[in-house]
Fold each of these.
Amino acid sequence: MNRPTTRKGCETRERIMVCAARLFARQGARGTSIDEILTESGTGKSQFYHYFRDKDELIRSVHAMQIERMLALHSVIFEQLDSWEGFELLNDTVLHLLESQRFQDGCPIGSLASELATSDELVRMDTEQYFDRKKAAIVRGLTAMKLRGELRPDTDVQGLADFVVVVLQGAKLLSKVRRSADCAQASLRHMLLYLQSHRS
Amino acid sequence: MNRPTTRKGCETRERIMVCAARLFARQGARGTSIDEILTESGTGKSQFYHYFRDKDELIRSVHAMQIERMLALHSVIFEQLDSWEGFELLNDTVLHLLESQRFQDGCPIGSLASELATSDELVRMDTEQYFDRKKAAIVRGLTAMKLRGELRPDTDVQGLADFVVVVLQGAKLLSKVRRSADCAQASLRHMLLYLQSHRS
DNA sequence: ATTCATCTGTACTGCGCGGTATAATCCTCC
DNA sequence: GGAGGATTATACCGCGCAGTACAGATGAAT
């Protein structure tokens, strides 16, 4: 609702957001109560409703934040996606991320989207944009490789980019269910091998 | 709680389950109240608590039912997974299923798992088993093809099977977010192409 | 020091939710 | 036809939830 103006206000809002993000990733948005977030973040109700109109707005804000966070975190990698090393780095980063959460959260963005996509159109659209931006980065990289003659001229860049996004999301989901990165690792490796099969 | 014995009882329990399954797929388990299920299915509270101990038991029952339903629906296909036609049929079936839901539900099993995997260990394990059984069917098929010499002897059957499961789940999730089968279709086609690249 | 907007503490409300209690019906079998 | 379990109707309970009211604290600017 109100954007914070002072330093203290920013910190408070931030603490709520970060804490909510963590809880949402573990137990979903519907499975997390506002009180729980407030207790965990050491804030009060008045503070919450000073910065957010209602729970839905919090959810959307957190989701948007996670999206920007992820895209920022991967921005360096995205720029290297015009080389095999870049894709290897992408795979490694994803696997590393999964392990750092001990395979508990899967993909926070994907999870929240899966939970709310049908009931919250805004969340759905934000997620769609997220996938679009991810895909665009991959398309850029593959196109560059194609232009440099590293990929066959008839390579279906668009379809491959969709494919990569799909594999990434699927791998993250399965690692969450299996509590292990094994299948994710195998899948990502095969994905890379498939990309490389388009070498000219 | 109580298993129904009479015909009427079975029908009542069935109606609750089917209705819950539909609602869970659209709005998640936490996003669906018992009252909503009862209203929609035309049953009463006493009937619900006659057949289910609590909401968790309903959720697990519905989830288990969905799993068995899916495996049964695919059992014929699973037996044909020792041929390229079999995999094509699998892809077509998945796409057809997505379209029949107008891309609203994605994968009911995957969605519920994503929502509850971290908070309900039983749901998580059931889902894991589901993926295992799916993978096993794929492994059987690919192994048969390998033995028949249609796949190269060094083919990583296990890894490929994981890969297929991952792609299927990822495709279903993205179709839900994108409200379209386009990316799913492209991904599944590329998956098949990759499998076929292992031809000997 | 006073002012004034920002920020925060606390107590409260109303309601929807999961779950219970009790008793009434239905059906089958003897 | 009536005994007895299976099934169903209805009213209810208590709690946790999202959201509100309002007063109090903070702190920078003048």
Amino acid sequence: MINIKFPDQSIRQYSEGVTGLDIARSISEGLARNVLAIKVNGEVWDATRPIFQDASIRLLTWDDDEGKATMWHSSAHLMAEAIESLYPGVKFGVGPDIENGFYYDIDFGDYQISSDDFKKIEDRMMEFARQKQEFKRRNVSKDEALEYFRRKGDEYKVELINDLEDGSITFYESGQFTDLCRGPHLPNTSPIKAVKLLSTAGAYWRGDEKRKMLTRIYGITFPKAEMLAEFLNMLEEAKKRDHRKIGKELDLFHFSARVGNGLPLWTPRGALLRERLMDFLKKELYKRGYVLVASPHIGNVNLYKTSGHYEKYGADSFRPISTPEPGEEFMLKPMNCPHHCEIYNRKPMSYKELPQRYAEFGTVYRYEQSGVLHGLTRVRGFTQDDAHIFCRPDQLKEEFIGVIDLVIFLFKTFNFNNFITQVSLRDPDNKAKYIGTDENWDKAEQAIIEAAEEKNLNPILAKGEAAFYGPKLDFIVKDAIGRKWQLSTIQVDYNLPERFELEYIGADNQRHRPIMIHRAIFGSIERFVAVMLEHTAGKLPLWLAPTQVIILPVSEKYQIYAENVSQLLKNSEIRSLIDDRNEKIGKKIRDAELQHIPYMLIVGEKEEMNNTVSVRKQGQGDMGSFSIKEFMDAVNNQVQDFL
RNA sequence: GCCGAUGUAGCUCAGCUGGUAGAGCAGCUGAUUUGUAAUCAGCCGGCCGGCGGUUCGAGUCCGUCCAUCGGCUCCA
């Protein structure tokens, strides 16, 4: 007998060789039907794999991320089986589960697969799923594995196997399909009750653009048909919230091929929104001891050679600008930091003057590959809400805490209540590839982790994810429909202080090297606007709305009164418009609602007589009648914290 | 950049197997003078993404370039 410990710490005894499925069945038949996999001592196993030793276990169902992952991984096999049966001779690359579903990279030879083929494949997948095909795990020797796929003519699998250790290789068989696979998998295909293939895409074999491009097919499966319907609804909702669509509808920004792709043009309304965001942030920066600096859009090539950016952005980015002076070249700045380093460098700095916190809404230019451009989230010219903090090593933690506070304050302000954080640390097995001393790295990593813990961030620790120049802390927000966006980043940099020979004079009268912290809260204004629009579905808060109030005269007779109201609002710095079109009030309200204008003021005979406005709040309807002053006070009250 | 798809009026879209462009919304004009999510009528508006080709004839077929979309890769 062996002892099996459950998540609630209770222990039950089972005979050796018991499987997850057996354990589930010993609890209830219902659980046995729902169990997709089992976690054994922290490792996810097939629910059908026998357990021979004492173990802590957790039965995994659809409600567990690992349960979903197992199902989607098995679904990738199911899709591969369906595709192999429909298109014999295709070759398979890799087919993992991903955050929302799974994909498989496939070499279809000469056949050009398209979404028209999806229905056929989905039907075949469901047919196989209903057959309740079992997933059978089998250990194979490297020779046997190679032999199998050589005979099958699948060079991709052969390549994968060649990279594996003999003795660690497993095959999974389901129906007519055998795949090289680590697993785990479902006991059988029956939990898969709904299938949807989502898209095709080209994907380089092993992510290497020099190698062959395979066809990737994305799909998702569910244990219930209703869940698929829900998922498809969510996709619809995401489409409705697409910032590119909202940006057009609300007339915020525009792209012109004549200006150049990836170069956003901000319309009057959009520019206003940007200004509001930047003004708000500036005010916070002053409060928190930052100082604004400013630098030009170009800098001498030598600046970027010193910083190392030339190497990174020189060849594949906008080409340097030449001048009448032979040999003289300037670059559009891809980063603000070199300029800020030179601002720091302008005079000897005392330890008493640190930290220096330089902030700039700096517009930078990077020649992104045409295929990656995407609305406002990926562009070629964008404005970072950038800042660089130059501090002493003993100030690092405190500075981190300061930035974390600012980030949290802003997330709260913008209603991003759901976010995760990640600390990127260096790879402990490969310390050589990082610049900076061992001691400094240890201290910095420690400082970041401590700062994050003090702020209860509960960060994910990602070893080996740090840049070569320093560890960092990233903030990833989840928007209203659960999508993740990386916004804020705080990065330690040992590299630039070195390259720019930054110094301060310490209390010991010796020269010391300051530490530099890069930090951006919004990331870029462009991206932040995009995320805001998708998060709010275009319903911007009052203080950000380009038009805060629209005055709707019931008929032309009240035009003069409407203008009077408008003037009063303007005097009070409330952004308003009059809808003086010859339309009925219902129509004007409808259009204002669709434009998500926070307040509508209906004015007619009653209002003109009593010097009032009838207030309608966007999304909520009629709020009743108020004096103009009452209304203005209420508006000013709501926005005052943001001015 | 690469793979695939798409590109028709300011916006959203229709236009079958090639015969020379259509709707709704927006805009303009007029009528109506309106009370909390679409008043009616008329009008304007298109080198059918650009360039080449096939054809008597191309929005429709072919090539090419550009842009957009979904991915790969990269990143804010």
